[in-house]
Amino acid sequence: METLSLLLDGFGAALTPVNLLLCLAGVVLGTVVGVLPGLGTAMAIALLVPVTFRLDPAGAFIMFAGVYFGGQFGGATTAILLNTPGQSSSMATAFEGFLMARNRRAPQALATAVLGSFLSSVVAVTLVVFFSPLMVELAVGFGPPEYFALTVLAFLATSAVVAGDVLRGLSGLGVGLALAMVGIDEQSGAVRFTLGTPQLLDGISIVVVTVGLLAIGEVLYVASRARRSPATETVASGRPWLNRRDLGRSWRPWLRGTALGVPFGVIPAGGAEIPTFLSYGAEKALAGRRGDDEFGRGAIEGVAGPEAANNATTATSLVPLLGLGLPTSATAAIMLGAFQQYGMRPGPLLFTQESDLVWALLASLFIGSVMLLVLNLPFAPVWAKLLRIPRNYLYAGIVVFATVGVYTARSALFDVLLLYVVGALGFLLRRYGFPVAPVLIGVILGPLAETSLRRAMAMSQGDVGVLFAGPFAVGIYSVLIVAVVLSAVLRPRRGRAGTG
């Protein structure tokens, strides 16, 4: 009852006209930033920190949280319509969402993403409100061995389940890991795979890899097949909204995605990318068991699950930030700096020393989710009308959009050149039937896997047994073994069923 009373007090503070206006401004700005690849919510909040320093702390953090949530909602829009994720956490959404858009189901894909984001956010924030102490204990229990186990699970799940062809999936993962190793090794200071180019010392930006593989690679692949279809073909946007069948296919992936995303937000294990890819892989595997072959042609489950996982992770990532002072993403790190500028120290004492601010912030997350639903859902058919643009103009626009977004991220012409090199790699992957997902997961999680492994080995003075010592690590590897065994058993059965 005490928690409920504190939450009601938080709503009283968050529902003041000034804080409502700041929340609205935050979710609108976050949505805009989420749509534009290369900007990111971390940069948006970093620019807002000095501007909002004169504001009341509660109002400032309500605005920051609105930007954080809005960025996740907006990132799915361009992922679905243009195959260009605004946020790296929307990459898994692009795989089936873009195919839905090409099949005249863009409004359904957008509506599924928005509804899934809203429902998962509400569920996750509710869990944060009532179970924060338990979530903090979960975060404390994770160390380098557990992080390494999670990355291994994500690597194998993405390579085997998502890719379908295990050999090609592992090959793609190897390409991604190679790209992730470019630059200076943070622990030893060694220079790796830079080919003597100073601009590569900082590594290859994830924005360049994401936009290059998905957007530029798709444009080059479509251009290579232009003679087989009219250059000015218009893609119809289709009928708006979700019917009963769409809702029936979406609600279970929403719940499963939320269940995957909630724990991953609590632990600093690579942000929302792991749960979104795991959700996509789980939905694809379940579809295969049902005999549903729509994955790879625009399955609505492939949008519903990852988007729910994405936003559930975003909501619960505030638990380690507020309860431990431990940021789990770049955006959370900027918010941690903002707390320090206001003279506050996030941690267990924050809930007692700054309870008014904390509960107003948590209440504003519910309000911001409702605002985002109202702002985004009615406009799904409007956004979908972008697909009425003739295809040659649309893909030219994607190239311009991607180039400007990548240049804006670091104002470096070399990044633009690198964008087209990675885009050519994306074209070759499509041309020869290699999956893109394992490449992306390798680039994103490769540094985390390497750092976690080396830290675990340093802790144990080279004893490999430390990787399997903790209960969480043992549980993760057990899940992995069960998944591999089931995959090995079920795959031949499906093959015999297909030939029978």
Global geometry: globular
Head-to-tail CA distance between termini: 60 Å
Compute the number of structural domains. 1
Q: What share of residues are in beta strands?
A: under 5%
By DSSP (H or I, 4+ residues per run), the number of helices equals 21
What is the average of the pLDDT values?
82
Classification by helices and strands = mainly alpha
Low-confidence stretches: 493-500
Largest sheet: 2 strands, antiparallel
Side-by-side strand order of the widest sheet:
1-2
Helix fraction by DSSP (H/I, runs of at least 4): over 70%
Tally the beta strands.
2
User: Using only CA atoms, what is the Rg?
Assistant: 22 Å
Order of helices and strands: HHHHHHHHEEHHHHHHHHHHHHH
Describe the structure concisely for a colleague.
This protein has helices at residues 2-14, 17-35, 40-51, 57-82, 91-102, 106-140, 144-162, 166-180, 206-224, 244-266, 273-290, 301-316, 318-324, 330-341, 350-353, 355-376, 380-384, 391-410, 413-431, 437-459, 471-499, and strands spanning 183-184, 191-192.
List keywords for this structure.
500 residues, mainly alpha, two-stranded antiparallel ribbon, globular, disordered C terminus, Putative tricarboxylic transport membrane protein, transmembrane helix, DUF112_TM
